[in-house]
User: What shape does this take?
Amino acid sequence: MEVIGVDRRWWALGALVTSMLVLGFDLTILNVALPAIADDLGASTGEAQWTADAYVVFFAALMLPAGLVGDRFGRRRTLLAGLGIFLAGSVLGALADDVATVIAARAVMGVGGAFVMPLALSVLPTLFTEPAERTKAVGAVSAASALGMPLGPILGGWLLDHYWWGSIFLLNVPMVALGIAACLLLLPESRDPAAPRVDPLATAATVLGLGALVFGVIEAPVRGWGDPLVVGAFALGAAAVAGLVGRERRSVRPMLDPALLSDRAFLLPALTATLVTLVASGLLFTLPLQLQTVLGYDALGTGVRLLPLMLGPVAAAKAVPPLAARFGPYAVMSAGLVVISFAAFLGSRGGPDDGYGFVALWLSVLSLGFGFAIVSAMDTALGSLPTDRAGSGSGLLMTLRQAGAAIGVAVFGSLLASVFAARLDTSRLPEAVAERAEESVVAAHRVAAELGDPALTGAAADAFSRGMSLTLLVCGIAALAAAPAVAALAPARKGTDREAVRRKGTDPAAHPAGPDPADRSGREGRTAVDTPGTDAPQ
Assistant: This one.
């Protein structure tokens, strides 16, 4: 293994920080550009959903096999390949002149991102062998990914106010090129020849299952829930997921560890984190449309007004540990879900005439709920893992959350599109024009501008607001139903050293903070340090 000097190590860390910052941007930067893309390219709501979900589907499905590829064939080499793929997708997106090309570009970026995310963290133990230095390095890389999420909408909004929508893709080019150059010059190569082999069938089943389920949810409002293609997509997705679980159960060294799904101490917080990620990702897809098309803010103003969603997790990071120690982590999770429910019910009472003050109020409350639920859920899930399952467990947790992000965008967008089309009054318009207007709120505004019909603009805003109200109502019901379930099904609190020894398999004092990022038992155990969602506030 190549050894590099102290100064060069920190320069190499800078390259990794840059790479993770770009991934953080791209989790959220597209959201503020969706109205501009829809307006310029004539994208329907379903097509806009695919521009967001194409990235997340491939990112979620390929992250685990990508990490295994890096472990077996070289982490530096695989990281460089991921950055190169991401760069190619960014260039394709910047040059795109139709929706299909944008979706393809996002898919390519998702493939690249799946290789970058796990490998960026997995090379840190090679660079920093001292625990104190390694902790600082992991924190820097994790912070870069988390920082990119709130900055994405703001930076994207500024670019859209000054340049065309393709600039949000072009931004990646110099930053990724810098990351590639720095990795080439500064990163040493490392690998783990004992890592499990990549299972092509399991990987294909993951992509096929998640993609088919998302396709069914997105296409159902347009084609109908009974349409053969939609029913077939759901059947295919369910069969692929069932086949994946069956194959992984029979595998000696599975990519995903199905046995963990029978462990309530892991499953319950993992499902809570997935639910919160689903809700947050869906809102990050729909809220920019409301702020821009209904409330009339520009792209930069929209990005700034999304910041309240990022404040709750910051506050929760400090508040959750003492509260969990006193009342138990499951009580904190339940409380967070109740707060999410209250905020969603409050937001569902809004209308097109409400200003941003009301939106900021329920967004701030919602953010607190997100923070308390997700921080306690992630800490509890990771803390429940024995050392020998740290890798497979954290990998399964990340995959569930990313799948939740993809499904959240699909479900929220489809529900919103259904309500919008049903509520928009187009009876006085010619049939062809009415069909155009019903595609999306952006399309309706475009038709209203062509016809000089302000009444249609007002009707579109009202129909969209009704759709947003229903989606928030569904969120509130889901969170309210989950809160007592989490509290009722919570395992009994175990605070003895004997229990800690049984779970961790060693002296609890030796592992006070959960899985060691440098643990060789699983590459994914290092990726779970930062757990960025597509999505979601952390």
